[in-house]
Write a structure and sequence with these properties.
A hairpin with a 5-residue loop joins strand 7 and strand 8. About 25% of the residues are buried. The protein has an eight-stranded mixed beta sheet. It has five helices and eight strands; from the N terminus they run βαβααββαβαβββ. With about 190 residues, the chain is α/β, with parallel strands linked by helices. It is globular.
Length: about 190
């Protein structure tokens, strides 16, 4: 069974809007590239899929855009080539090496997790909340930014039940950001 990992940038006050934290730098992009490459497939909701596709899909010209720095290209290539699953009831189709996931979310994700491999990676806000509520996330990774945003959306807002976590790993960046990885504590009867 492959684990489902949830990874996201978050400010110290819990804001997980993609523009609220520090701008990406070489070190953080290397880190996120390694995370992308650790996954067999990416799992997105519609909003995150469309946002990532608009930023990181390789243009038809087969040349990365001029705005992209050289150190961003490995991340762009990793996400561009990754297998993607998109949970959406409103999209009629997807491409970009993607497949739509429909029907019962819990059953569909459980089927994906039962395939062999290194793991699935999920990002975003809404879909991870639903997956956390279903108890399907095996690892949480927060890249905590040394920023107070003062606004939302906030991390896992609306979670139905408290999830106790145990630390697994920690990585400090020169920027002051800290990647913290946790696993849910399994309660045994």
């Amino acid at each position: 069974m492959r684990p489902l990992r949830y990874s996201i940038n978050v400010t110290l006050d819990g804001c997980c809007h993609h523009e609220a934290g520090l701008p990406p730098d070489e070190e953080s992009m290397r880190y996120w590239t390694a995370e992308m490459e650790r996954a067999d497939a990416l799992l997105f909701g519609r909003v995150t899929y469309e946002m990532m596709e608009s930023a990181w899909r390789k243009p038809a010209t087969d040349t990365w855009p001029d705005w992209m720095d050289e150190w961003q290209i490995p991340f762009a290539e990793a996400i561009d080539r990754a297998k993607k699953y998109v949970v959406s009831s409103t999209l009629s189709g997807v491409d970009w090496n993607a497949e739509l996931v429909r029907g019962d979310l819990g059953q569909a994700v459980q089927r994906l997790k039962q395939e062999s491999g290194e793991g699935l990676w999920v990002g975003g806000v809404t879909l991870p909340l639903a997956l956390a509520d279903l108890g399907l996330i095996d690892e949480y990774e927060f890249l905590v930014q040394p920023v107070l945003a003062g606004h939302g959306p906030t991390l896992l807002a609306g979670l139905r039940e408290r999830i106790q976590l145990e630390p697994v790993d920690r990585h400090e960046f020169r920027s002051g950001a800290v990647a913290q990885r946790y696993r849910p504590t399994r309660v045994t009867a």
